[in-house]
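User: Is it possible to get a 3D structure for a protein together with its bound compound? The compound here is manganese (II) ion. I've pasted both below.
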Amino acid sequence: MPSILNADLHCHSVVSDGTLTPEALAERAAANGVELWALTDHDEVGGQHRAMAAAKAHGMRYLTGCEISVTFAGETVHIVGLGFDPDDAAMQQGLEDTRGGRDGRAREMAAQLAKVGIHGAYEGALKYVGNPKLISRTHFARFLIETGVCKDTNEVFRKYLTEGRPGYVEHRWASLRDAVHWITSAGGMAVIAHPARYKFTANEEFALFSEFKAHGGLGVEVVTGSHTAAEYVRYAATAKEFGLAASRGSDFHSPEESHTDLGRLPYLPGELTPVWELLADRVR
Ligand code: AMP
Ligand code: MN
Ligand code: MN
Ligand code: MN
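Assistant: Yes, that's possible. Here is the predicted structure of the complex:
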């Protein structure tokens, strides 16, 4: 497969915090000209067989995917897994453990919101949840917008649900080591998601990339819906510095909320090794 490929290797369905089914996403990806697709729901592989079948029905090549929540240096980092066996028991158990704390966290978030006069947030967020084990801040954001507390997602994450704001509950996710090992032991490749989104010092970022590599991580997202054009350039250089392959993905969640649609991104810079070059034998 060539470097210049309309690959979209990061998006979310109702199985986590997206609003479309895997089938509707596949249809939209195909309509937008996506040639290689991966559904990467948060901490959950329950949509993989549906996504694979839907990709096939639309003549799209497919890589299995998942976006794992990790705690590193006190910050939440996301690690995308690509091309793993979706039925791998150890990975499924690891993801189940990672999801485990979400319900209790959601109840605490709601209790905090109630203290600032926003009542019924847990029940309100649940209405948007497609998978009860995966209640996330995105579902709370939808409730806060629906009830007119905020006008859009940006305002929600500026005023609520983030560190120092009402509704933020500190949470411990998987370790970097475990996440990378689950993915690689299941035959897949680990990729650092949207590196520009983390509030790390230069030293912490260096530690993230170094430790990730030491655990066997092989890729980094360079062109993603959550990077600016300047950040593509910056992380293309980081990919080369650390000898990592580069990935491309919209991080699409919803037609109403996402500013980058499936497949609608610049191509990867030509001098990088695309992740799909190393995953050629895992493309379905
Ligand atoms: P959680 O896994 O419950 O902590 O929720 C994280 C999800 O919230 C991310 O995957 C995004 O979908 C969403 N999110 C986090 N921060 C923002 C933000 N600043 N703007 C929009 N969505 C965000
Ligand atoms: Mn999300
Ligand atoms: Mn993410
Ligand atoms: Mn994502």
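The pocket of manganese (II) ion (ligand 4) is lined by residues 10, 12, 67, 251 (CB under 6 Å). The chain has eleven helices and eight strands.
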